[in-house]
Design goal:
alpha/beta; Quinone Oxidoreductase, Chain A, domain 1; Rossmann fold; 2 domains; 7-stranded mixed sheet; 6-stranded parallel sheet; 15 strands
């Protein structure tokens, strides 16, 4: 079978690998669609802070089921989450599942960008295999995981209907955050990005106003329109300049949420005394739990949100290098999907 894996010295390659052999407690899934995440791009560039396995925004069809597995059948259509927490440690018991020591140790083998991948016992038993309805296509289903990450982020920050928010960075997850904020009754929602097409898309999914940070004095414009600054600013990019602008855009006592994955070694300089005297809360959010996955799946299957509208490019697995190239440099690229017939 074909599978995309990281090279030891950086970059990725499509290799011929044996189809994984499963044990009696595992399942084998045929990948049908897998989205390219910003963290995948960082892994290929060699500056990621997450695990080295590629491909986790994945949907497919169960190909084989181990004889001891119950509740999962061959030919079922599924979304598979790549990490699960232990459920019993201090962090799991206090709603910090994604920093559980066990969480990053599970993954899809050999990669989500493979014709077939093995789902380990810990993932099967941990509830990481989620069935999808026949009406939901695979590319839409592949967006359950990134949507779940957005849901977790907004849950952590505690945003409520009637509050105001700004989203810095309008890639696929930034646009999903805008769409969720609209669903949650947050208004106005300000959307900030250097790319005009992304700003226009933000308006279509629920933003009330957009800014170009290269041309606009974003913090002062937001303060002028809200009289005090937004209740919450979500940084959906790893760009440190966005973090600085977000800190300046929130009201006194407001919250800044770091959501976009910064490159390893990223440094930010800001006046901590200003943050202190204004009582700014700074939080971060990484990945998603199984409850977030289920909520995301429910919202997508009920058509309450449509993150698939952000899909702009589709490539067969055989052209995965081209897919990563487009995802990494094309200004008109939204979500890029790798498909396996």
């Amino acid at each position: 079978m074909k599978a995309a894996v990281l090279r030891q010295n950086g970059g990725l390659e499509l290799r011929d690998l044996p189809v994984p052999t499963i044990s009696e407690t595992e399942i084998l899934v045929r990948m049908r669609a897998c989205g390219i995440c910003g963290t995948d791009l960082e892994k290929v560039r060699g500056d990621a802070v997450t695990t080295s396995v590629l491909g986790h925004e994945v949907a497919g069809v169960v190909e084989q089921v181990g004889k001891s597995v119950r509740g999962i059948e061959v030919d079922e259509r599924v979304v598979v989450h790549h990490h699960v927490s232990c459920g019993s440690c201090y962090y799991c018991k206090n709603s910090f599942e994604t920093v559980c020591e066990s969480y990053p140790k599970s993954h899809l083998e050999p990669s989500g960008f493979a014709e077939f991948f093995r789902v380990s016992e810990i993932l099967v038993n941990g509830g990481a295999v989620h069935r999808i309805v026949s009406e939901l296509n695979f590319e839409s289903a592949s967006q359950v995981e990134p949507t779940a990450c957005c849901i977790r982020a907004l849950r952590k920050v505690g945003i409520k209907a009637g509050e105001t928010a700004a989203v810095f960075g309008l890639g696929p997850v930034g646009l999903t955050l805008v769409e969720l904020l609209r669903l949650y009754g947050v208004a106005p929602v300000f959307a900030i990005d250097v790319i005009e097409k992304r700003r226009n898309l933000a308006i279509t999914v629920g933003a009330n106003c957009t800014f170009d940070p290269r041309k606009d004095d974003v913090p002062n414009l937001i303060i002028a329109q809200t009289q005090r600054g937004v209740d919450c600013a979500v940084v959906a990019t790893g760009n440190p300049k966005a973090i600085e602008q977000a800190l300046q855009s929130v009201r006194k006592g407001g919250k800044v949420l770091l959501f976009g994955a910064p490159a390893r070694g990223t440094q930010v300089t800001f006046d901590v005394s200003r943050m202190w005297i204004r009582e700014i809360n700074f939080l971060s959010s990484y990945s998603a739990s199984e409850s977030d996955m289920q909520m995301a799946l429910d919202l997508i299957q009920q058509r309450r949100i449509s993150p698939s509208t952000q899909i702009t490019h589709r490539f067969p697995l055989s052209q995965i290098s081209d897919a990563f190239h487009v995802a990494g440099i094309a200004e008109d690229a939204g979500k890029v999907i790798v498909e396996n017939a």
